[in-house]
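S.,

Sequence below, as promised.
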Amino acid sequence: MSSGCYKNRTQKKTKEITNNNQPEPGIHPCFYSEAKNRYGIIHLPVASECNIQCAYCRLDYDCLYENRPGVTKGVISPEQALERLKRKIERMPNISVAGVAGPGDAFADPELTLNTFELIRSKNPRIALCVSTNGLNIGDYIMRLAELDVRYVTITINTLNPVTGALLYKWVNIGDARLYGAEGAKILIEKQLHLYLRCITAAGAGLVFDIRGSLTAITVMLIIFIAVMGYGISMGLDIDCGCFGSGDTEVKAYHGLRTKLYRDIILLSGTAAN
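The prediction came back faster than expected:
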């Protein structure tokens, strides 16, 4: 599936999948209004399985009445995805983003998604890569995504309340175990919040190395996360960022959302002073 318009149907064929019309960063037509009518995105349906079952979701193939990233005529392999991208760029040279968003979750079988990105990146070092996931299993693959220059990562969070989650998620797979109801929803929510903590850590590193935009990014994330943690405390959630080993004194110092909330309020005060 692909979206967007194109100016011409001809392009010189090379050994690489080239796109001479591809713009600089800020090219995702789903996120940037100025790119919406100029550039396109192609969704590559390589993710066949899902690690959760949402009550509202059906993994239908070849559905006549729906047109969205999660619905497809069929699942394809990473090699087929590369060939499809090549054909589409030949016809629509304004495609600027290649994404994996379904029909299942991109990290239920992470190697399918990562192999697809590796094949694309080996042939096209410029195209932006995009992935959408529920966040349950992505944590172990963040460094590989960074190495592949995957610029757009979307985590779908439906709720921060495990009781509400029990109504939204029929089950959640954790390793070989399948958890039902609020128990499974709580694990999923904690995994999603864990990712946000890692985002703050990454933004903090950018601040240390004086990377442009890091202060703004960390300020915005702190404001959002303070609100999220306040809600998490009211729900009785308890997570840590997983950055340190279980015996590390840092874990003991920062275990529990309430302590993290106080810490981030202090950090926000520091960003405001700058």
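The mean pLDDT is 76.

Coffee later?
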